[in-house]
Amino acid sequence: MKLFFDTSALVKFFHEEEGTQEVTALITAKDNEIWISELAKIEFLSALYRRVRNKEITDEQLTEAMSSFEEESASFNSEPLRHATIKEAEAVLKQYGNPMGLELLMPCN
Predict the structure, then answer these.
(1) CA 22, CA 5: separation in Å to the nearest integer?
(2) What is the DSSP string of 50-79?
(3) Is 75 helix (H, G, I), strand (E, B) or coil?
(4) 41 — phi, psi (to 5°)?
């Protein structure tokens, strides 16, 4: 079965919380084809950094989740975005995600 996972579901797969067992069962089932938006990779990093800032996870848990995500997500099908956009967004999150969050970098309308 083809399944599309949003960022909140992906976080449950890489960080133990309510819903983790259900998401893990779906992602690890052999017959399931996992799809994510390439934007989900950026949103995932942002969600993790927000959890560090909110003291919900430690820096060590952040590093472990990021590493696991990079390894596991290589096996997911992904709907691509422009490479340059993704790389720039990743760089901005890695530089500013922990101390202040991306929302503080964006202009308000």
Answers:
(1) 12
(2) HHHHTTSS-HHHHHHHHHHHHHHHTTSEEE
(3) coil
(4) -65, -40
> Which pair of tokens denotes residue 54?
């909110």
pTM of this prediction?
A: 0.64
Question: What are the counts of helices (DSSP H) followed by strands (DSSP E) for the chain?
Answer: 5, 3
Domains of the chain: 2-104 (3.40.50.1010)
Per-residue pLDDT reduced to its tens digit, 64-89: 988 988 998 889 998 777 777 778 77
Query: Does the CA dihedral 14-49-33-22 come out positive or negative?
Result: positive
Smallest CA-to-CA distance from 69 within 5, 19, 1, 3 is with 5
Residue type, 79: E
Q: What are the angstrom distances between the C-alpha of 57 and each of 19, 45, 62?
A: 17, 13, 7
